[in-house]
């Protein structure tokens, strides 16, 4: 199709397969998995859909030009040659961000500046007017990516990172990023067919993402704005049609989603965020210390959580992780428990053997997502039955 074009969805390390799978289910074509990104082909409507519906994407870029660069002058000349009037008005505003992996170009801010100069000079030379730089609300957000001698210029279709869903107004000391939370829930295999629990729920992010996955609610419905809404070819009718078709695919959920936290302030923040997300009919949050709780009922329980880690909190990590293992062992039979930690040393004190370990990054910290399967009675009894 003539109206199709290439796009690149960026993600976190370890989520590439998840993102490719999400794109495939949405109907993307020609998928190629990279490191922290997946490239694909679609049209304008699909670009809108991807921004609204992808849970594990941080940003969606639309590459418009690729060329070789050997010097700063090359970069300036190539950017100057481009037809920028197709993308913005001379009186508009722009912002540029850049990533650089090269021996020749070492300073990404300088590359952004050089790109800006070329665009501004082009407009000034051809129209006698010049666009301004607006880092917060630009009409056009441009991404420059230099890998050795290859430079790719892309339009940023998303604007602010897609992890900013719009439902979080209150956060705690160490809030988990929404894309990370969604990815953990997806990697855990949560399908909405059982009760779900986050026993250390903080500001409620994992709970909100789990509820949206269970009900198939698009994660970015509440965002104030996407970058493409300021483009010259913005089609509000098409956008609303896409939004409506996604909303028709939501589904009912017949189980419970429960959050505990022992901090009263975390509980009130989580409740506020869940209410903002219009998910309070699915999620119950209680002021409880997980280590003093037991599972209610016989039904299967799916648990995903992000325990506090020593960087920001004053905890005896060994004792803390031992308590996690003891509580799971004694109080939570018939439970699949998953949690993420960057304290790989403390993990040894859980006292249970994980059935899975997945390497991820939580911000800059290398982490593991681990799974513990708690059986009804002993494992031995399970196999005898």
From TrEMBL:
Organism classification: Bacteria, Pseudomonadati, Bacteroidota, Flavobacteriia, Flavobacteriales
Matching Gene3D superfamilies: 3.30.2130.30, Vaccinia Virus protein VP39
InterPro entries, A to Z: DNA_methylase_N6_adenine_CS, RlmKL-like_Mtase, RlmL_1st, SAM-dependent_MTases_sf, THUMP_dom
Keywords in alphabetical order: Methyltransferase, RNA-binding, Transferase
Ranges of residues in domain THUMP: 46-157
Entry-linked SMART domains: THUMP
Cross-referenced Pfam families: RlmL_1st, THUMP, UPF0020
Protein name per Swiss-Prot or TrEMBL: THUMP domain-containing protein
């Amino acid at each position: 199709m003539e109206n199709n074009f290439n796009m690149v969805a960026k993600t976190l390390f370890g989520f590439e397969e998840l993102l490719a799978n999400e794109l495939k289910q949405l109907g993307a074509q020609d998928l190629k998995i990279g490191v922290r990104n997946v490239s694909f082909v679609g049209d304008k409507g699909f670009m809108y859909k991807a921004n609204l519906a992808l849970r594990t994407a941080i940003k969606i870029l639309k590459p418009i030009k690729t060329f070789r660069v050997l010097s700063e002058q090359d970069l300036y000349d190539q950017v100057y040659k481009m037809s920028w009037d197709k993308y913005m008005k001379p009186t508009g505003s722009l912002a540029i961000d850049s990533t650089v992996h090269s021996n020749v170009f070492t300073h990404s801010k300088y590359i952004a500046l050089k790109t800006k100069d070329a665009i501004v000079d082009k407009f000034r030379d051809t129209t006698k007017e010049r666009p301004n730089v607006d880092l917060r609300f630009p009409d056009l957000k441009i991404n420059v990516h230099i890998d050795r001698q290859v430079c790719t210029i892309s339009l940023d279709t998303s604007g602010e990172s897609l992890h900013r869903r719009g439902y979080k107004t209150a956060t705690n000391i160490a809030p988990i990023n929404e894309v990370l939370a969604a990815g953990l829930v997806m990697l855990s295999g949560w399908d909405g067919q059982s009760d779900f629990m986050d026993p250390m729920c903080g500001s409620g992010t994992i709970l909100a993402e789990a509820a949206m996955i269970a009900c198939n609610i698009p994660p970015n419905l509440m965002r104030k704005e996407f970058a493409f809404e300021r483009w010259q070819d913005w089609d509000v009718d098409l956008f609303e049609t896409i939004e409506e078709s996604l909303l028709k695919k939501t589904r009912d959920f017949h189980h419970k989603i429960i959050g505990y936290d022992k901090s009263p302030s975390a509980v009130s923040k989580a409740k506020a965020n869940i209410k903002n997300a219009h998910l309070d009919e699915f999620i119950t949050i209680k002021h409880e210390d997980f280590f003093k709780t037991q599972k209610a009922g016989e039904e299967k329980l799916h648990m995903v959580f992000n325990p506090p880690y020593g960087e920001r909190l004053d905890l005896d990590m060994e004792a803390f992780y031992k308590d996690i293992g003891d509580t799971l062992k004694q109080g939570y039979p018939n439970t699949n428990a998953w949690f993420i930690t960057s304290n790989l040393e403390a993990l040894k004190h859980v006292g249970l053997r994980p059935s899975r370990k997945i390497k991820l990054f939580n911000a800059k910290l290398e982490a593991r997502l681990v799974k513990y399967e708690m059986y009804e009675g002993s494992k031995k009894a399970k196999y005898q039955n």
